[in-house]
Amino acid sequence: MEQIRDSEILEDLAECRICPHRCEAKRLDGQTGYCNSGRSYQVSSVGLHFGEEPVLSGADGICNVFFSRCNLSCVFCQNHQISARRNCALEEMLTLDKVVGRIEQELDKGTDLLGFVSPSHFIPQTKAIIRALHEKGRHPRIIYNTNGYDTVDSLKSLENTVDVYLPDFKYMDKALAKEYSGVGDYPQFAGAAIKEMYSQKGSRLWLDEKGKAESGLIIRHLVLPGHVENSLKVLDFIANELSVSVHISLMSQYNPTPKVAGHPKLGRKLQVEEYQQVVDHFYELGFSKGWVQELESSDRYNPDFEKEKPFGDR
Ligand code: SF4
Known about the structure:
Blueprint: E1 41-49, H1 54-57, E2 62-67, H2 80-83, E3 92-94, H3 96-107, E4 113-117, H4 123-135, E5 141-146, H5 152-156, E6 164-167, H6 174-181, H7 186-201, E7 206-207, E8 213-222, H8 228-242, E9 247-251, H9 272-285, E10 290-292
Parallel strand pairs: 2-4, 4-5, 5-6, 6-8, 8-9, 9-10
Antiparallel strand pairs: 1-2, 1-3, 7-8
């Protein structure tokens, strides 16, 4: 089989500035930057997933590609098995042919949604995968499932490629962003990134006849224990800078990992009263579109990437 070519599309890795770290690492020459990622297709999991918001899963599920490593260092990360920047045990260095082959196997099971999870440090590879699929006559809808730490330039380059943006919006509190994720400028960059996504997609979420997302923006926010104020400010920002018509997925699924056991705030689950304060604010601001979780669902959200199905049958 002829190898699919990708050298031209990976040019942006020559001096990598694709995410806000702007390391200028020469990833084509073997250097790695803050994310400790190189030129190849570093993937931890490709598989069908049923646990997303209903418009992204449906009965057919979504094929999610989990890149390994990350451009953030969240101490509470629930995907810590695959997101560690150093000594990430659960990753494969795949060729483009190989990763495309694996995606095709999953698409053949009947889904037409393809999600890229934590793609911010692998945007050129993401584009190469999508182009290769198009060349094979495959045109799944593309979901860009990001931690929000993206540059506006990178997002502009995705404008005609991504169908649904699915960003986290973790913090408006700079000190919290620095302490928990290693980047005090997260609010500045994530705010600009989400405004760019909104300028591309607006607030309407387009659905197909099966009720699955065709195009739009869904903002996820995970409420952290002991940090209700941060969550209220995130909602304020969206209401003031974007619109209360945006779809919000308000998540209560926080579950402490062993790394934060004993942490004064992150070492426990979210309390009902904390989540309720955020939900109340959501409605007070005038939001009405999106999803609010059941609080008791947190145990169900701990993936195990050492298993063939990291999310079980979800
Ligand atoms: S993607 Fe990685 S190497 Fe590139 S700028 Fe971001 S952290 Fe640095």
